[in-house]
Amino acid sequence: MKKILFLVSLITIITLLSSCAAFKGIGSSDHSIDEATLNNAIESGKFIVKFDMMFTRFGSPVFLRPRSNYLIVDGENAILSAAYLGRQYDFRPIEGIRMQGKTINYEIIKKDAKGRYSIRMNVGNGRNTFTIFLKVNKDGYVSASINSLKIDAASYSGYIESIKKQQTESREEVI
Question: Are 72 and 78 in contact (CB under 8 A)?
């Protein structure tokens, strides 16, 4: 009986340790960006923010695919694609945030001594307008808040990447 209890507890401990290690690996990222590239991307207004985590209204995290949840800012143009869980203030159901529009009032609020940026911008397409607040650390980690009249505020975290010249040229061919 003692051997069975020992085996069950050993298996439970091993399972817990492996799940904790897997959970730690999900949130960690090695998507760091050098400071010069980060400064250039933010000052020029040409960057991609890939969201890898969303936080619900009560603070519980939801892991996202960065390939499907992103904000692309390319000068005056912007594309926003993000998952959404929360209340809505419209008669039609909202499956997620999807918008291709223009950046309005792109403003770098401050850059502090530690190299962190605070950015505020509006992204609109005539029908909808989203207010986006970004807090960017000097290693590329981003904390984002997306607000609109039709939905509750949504919070995300992720990382920032610079738009390379080649990506911009291939996107212009598509448009």
Answer: yes
Listed residue (100, 29, 105) closest to 70, CA to CA: 100
Query: For residue 153, what are the CA distances in angstroms to 25, 48, 55, 56?
Result: 27, 21, 10, 9
Q: Taking the model in full, what pTM does it have?
A: 0.74
Q: With contact defined as beta carbons under 8 Å apart, do 84 and 98 qualify?
A: no
DSSP code of 88? B
Residue 93: pLDDT band with limits 50, 70, 90: confident
Task: Tell me how far apart the alpha carbons of residues 145 and 143 are, in angstroms, rounded to a whole number.
Answer: 7
Hey, what amino acid is at 129?
T
CB 151 within 8 A of CB 84: yes
Cα(first)–Cα(last) distance of the chain, in Å?
70
Reading the block at residue 135, the tokens are: 């807090």
Distance CA 129, CA 146 (A): 10
